[in-house]
């Protein structure tokens, strides 16, 4: 091998060595940078994964709390439907806002029944008619008057209830606690809203919880609006949330229900008028026949068969009025 070939060989080996060293240094730096980058990406992915897991755990916990709250409210509603409280005479007197005891109510009922039976006996009616009139006077008339008192008070309470919820919403937005808002309603609202919330405040001051006090309010005022209010307060106390927003939405819903009820009442006024005319028509015909031909209709009041016919007619009239009333009744 000549000297020129040795020089070329040494130059080639030197070139290969330099290229190998450069590649080694370059690839080593790239591997370190890649490893460092991989570590950063892995740490970021791990932290973001932890955040996502924490958010998922928080959402799952909140969802579980909401499910438990709804289950508790469903159980409470089923228990309330099976409960007989709120259906006795004492509870109905309380719902009407009367300040009499059940004993006085029953004494008055017996007096009304005895008076009606005495009037029927003075008019010369048979014992069967006297007994029927006394029974209706003792059990029908007082309960009917009591039902009218309950309906009138509940209607007035419903009209005022939306304004009371607005007071709570504004108070909570300004930073007042719920109990203080209830105290404002009790002090400044007219009856029956103010008096009912005053009893709620008194119950809370005696040691009852807000949920228990509102449950007693629902027994005194068994209205869907009060039930909705209790559900919102119960969910907020168990799972948290924006109470002012929830009660604001509830106030809008109640006002919408009221407007819908007024629309239904206006649309069904013609049917109610027709039902009233149909219900009063037999009585009007009987009165006209009595004044025009008294001997023709007097047998209904003097003969036992006539008394029996009158009882059947009164029963059929009652059933017809009840059916027409149920047909016109729309729950909103």
Q: What would your notes on this structure say?
A:
The protein is an all-alpha fold. The protein contains 13 helices and no strands. It has helices at 3-82, 89-96, 102-122, 127-173, 178-188, 193-205, 210-220, 224-239, 243-267, 269-292, 294-297, 299-302, 304-328. α3 (102-122) runs antiparallel to α4 (127-173), α5 (178-188) packs across α6 (193-205) and α6 (193-205) runs antiparallel to α7. The longest helix has 80 residues, at 3-82. The radius of gyration is 41 Å and the shape is elongated. The termini are far apart.
Briefly say what this structure is.
The chain has 332 residues and is mostly helical. The chain is built from 13 helices and no strands.
Outline the secondary-structure elements.
Blueprint: H1 3-82, H2 89-96, H3 102-122, H4 127-173, H5 178-188, H6 193-205, H7 210-220, H8 224-239, H9 243-267, H10 269-292, H11 294-297, H12 299-302, H13 304-328
Give a quick set of tags describing it:
332 residues; mainly alpha; 87% helix; cell membrane; T2SS_GspF_dom; Type II secretion system F family protein; transmembrane; T2SS_GspF_sf
Low-confidence parts lasting 5 or more residues at pLDDT below 50?
none
Shape: elongated
Q: What's the quaternary structure here?
A: single chain
**Percentage of residues assigned to helices:** over 70%
Q: Count helical runs.
A: 13
Structural class call reads mainly alpha
Q: How much is the average pLDDT? A: 80
Number of strands: 0
The major pleated sheet works out as: none
Region (Disordered): 44-87
Protein name: Type II secretion system F family protein
Biased composition (Basic and acidic residues): 71-87
Main location: membrane
């Amino acid at each position: 091998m000549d000297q020129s070939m040795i020089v070329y060989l040494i130059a080639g080996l030197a070139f290969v060595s330099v290229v190998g060293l450069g590649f080694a240094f370059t690839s080593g730096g790239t591997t370190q940078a890649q490893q460092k980058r991989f570590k950063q990406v892995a740490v970021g992915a791990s932290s973001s994964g932890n955040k996502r897991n924490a958010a998922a755990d928080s959402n799952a916990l909140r969802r579980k709390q909401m499910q438990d709250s709804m289950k508790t409210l469903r159980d409470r509603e089923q228990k309330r439907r099976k409960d007989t409280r709120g259906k006795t005479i004492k509870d109905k007197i309380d719902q009407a806002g009367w300040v009499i005891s059940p004993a006085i109510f029953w004494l008055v009922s017996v007096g009304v029944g005895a008076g009606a039976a005495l009037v029927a006996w003075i008019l010369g009616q048979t014992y069967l008619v006297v007994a029927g009139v006394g029974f209706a006077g003792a059990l029908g008339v007082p309960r009917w008057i009591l039902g009218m008192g309950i309906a009138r008070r509940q209607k007035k309470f419903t009209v005022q209830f939306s304004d009371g919820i607005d007071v709570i919403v504004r108070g909570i937005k300004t930073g007042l606690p719920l109990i203080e808002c209830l105290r404002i309603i009790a002090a400044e609202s007219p009856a029956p809203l103010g008096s009912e919330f005053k009893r709620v405040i008194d119950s809370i001051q005696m040691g009852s919880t807000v949920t228990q006090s509102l449950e007693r309010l629902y027994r005194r005022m068994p209205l869907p609006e009060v039930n909705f209010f209790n559900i919102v307060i119960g969910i907020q106390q168990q799972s948290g949330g924006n109470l002012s927003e929830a009660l604001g939405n509830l106030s809008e819903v109640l006002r919408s229900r009221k407007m819908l009820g007024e629309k239904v009442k206006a649309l069904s006024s013609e049917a109610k008028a027709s039902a009233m005319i149909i219900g009063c028509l037999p009585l009007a015909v009987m009165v006209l026949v009595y004044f025009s031909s008294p001997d023709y209709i007097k047998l209904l009041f003097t003969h036992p068969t006539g008394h029996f016919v009158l009882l059947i007619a009164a029963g059929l009239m009652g059933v017809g009025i009840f059916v027409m009333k149920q047909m016109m009744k729309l729950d909103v």
